[in-house]
Amino acid sequence: MTQQEDPHEQFKGVKPVEERHRLDEAALAAWLAVNVEGYAGPLTINQFKGGQSNPTYQLVTPNKKYVLRKKPGGKLLPSAHAVDREFKVISALYPTGFPVARPYALCQDDSVLGAMFYVMDMVEGRVLWDGSLKELPKAERRAVYENKIATLAKLHNTDHEKIGLSDYGKPGNYFARQIDRWSKQYKLSETDKIPKMDKLIEWLPVTIPPGERTSIVHGDYRLDNLILHASEPRVIAVLDWELSTLGDPLGDFTYYLMNWAMPHDGRAGLGGLDLKELGIPTLEEVVALYCAQTGRDGIASLDWYFAYNAFRLACILQGIAGRVRDGTAASAHATQMIQRIGPLSDAAYMYAERAGLK
């Protein structure tokens, strides 16, 4: 498939390390030899094309491949790029059998590579980008979606206190804290005035639905953050835990549900597709599956949750816009993402009006 035929080629796989992201290979190899069980060089380093947030590297040795996630350099937003939190959550989940890469070690000594980083196993499998799953046979598509839902339900059913994550976030008031956090980051990163976003910043915190639960939430559970088994329709690793915390699992699940509301553009969105023809579960079927696995009768106020999720995504992308402005964004893909801020704020406002915004 040529690059023209595959719109995701630019952020699939690896490339030589960009000059600005070069690592001190000798210092890294010395650290790996001491801190990573079973490590044996020589070492070759590549950079993953995706990941405009934290620079991510592939470490290749004769016997094994690893992944290194590192904080970027330069001016950063508060609480962003917390690779130590990512390491903590995957270290707690890995022994439970939840599908995450095996974590090896965290380095908090900036003198090694200039910023904090951690190393984990590289899980080999399939990363898919297109929600229609057109590269899979029809019979497998439903199984993939059902396994994705079961994996998310398993995360939300995990006893965070029992696995040592009782201090991973503040329990309670999750949506209020998230709206406050993203509103602040939006304001810090603001490049253009968007009146609808200002109105949502006022409306969302005073209309939060009742009935909050607390669990581990991933924060960015989507198709291209999952590695599927090479030949089976099941998730073998959930990636990119940068936004994970303790919070209301409905924040996670309704973010995932947004795929059914967002128009299909070759990414995860399924809006406008003939789901029955494709063999993909409908939004109603997905809600029923998730509720059955997490002990719920149903989910009220979906329009509010969709408004919140579109707003949050617009704020995240605005953060990337601010980092492009400040010169710290780590991917050419970032500029494409910025173009989605306006449409997302429009979508958030539309769902908010459906949920009662006057």
Can you give the mean pLDDT?
A: 90
How helix-rich are the residues, as a percent range?
A: 40-55%
Q: What is the chain-wise order of helices and strands?
A: EHEEEHEHEHHHEEEEHHHHHH
* Beta-strand proportion: 5-15%
Low-confidence stretches: 1-8
**Structural class computed from helices and strand pairing:** alpha+beta
User: Number of DSSP strands?
Assistant: 10
What shape does the CA trace take?
A: globular
Largest sheet: 6 strands, antiparallel
Characterise this structure.
The chain has 358 residues and is an alpha+beta fold. It has helices at residues 25-35, 83-93, 110-113, 138-157, 174-189, 195-203, 249-261, 275-278, 283-294, 302-326, 333-338, 341-354; strands at 14-15, 44-48, 56-60, 65-70, 103-107, 117-121, 215-217, 226-228, 235-238, 245-247. A hairpin with a 7-residue loop joins strand 2 and strand 3. It is globular and about 60 Å long. Residues 1-8 have low confidence and may be disordered.
Keywords:
two-stranded antiparallel ribbon, about 350 residues, single chain, globular, alpha+beta, 6-stranded antiparallel β-sheet, about 10% strand, disordered N terminus, 12 helices, about 40% helix
Q: What is the topology?
A:
Elements lengths: L13 E2 L9 H11 L8 E5 L7 E5 L4 E6 L12 H11 L9 E5 L2 H4 L3 E5 L16 H20 L16 H16 L5 H9 L11 E3 L8 E3 L6 E4 L6 E3 L1 H13 L13 H4 L4 H12 L7 H25 L6 H6 L2 H14 L4
Antiparallel strand pairs: 1-2, 2-3, 3-4, 4-6, 5-6, 7-10, 8-9
Helix pairs in contact: 4-9, 5-10, 6-12, 7-10, 10-12
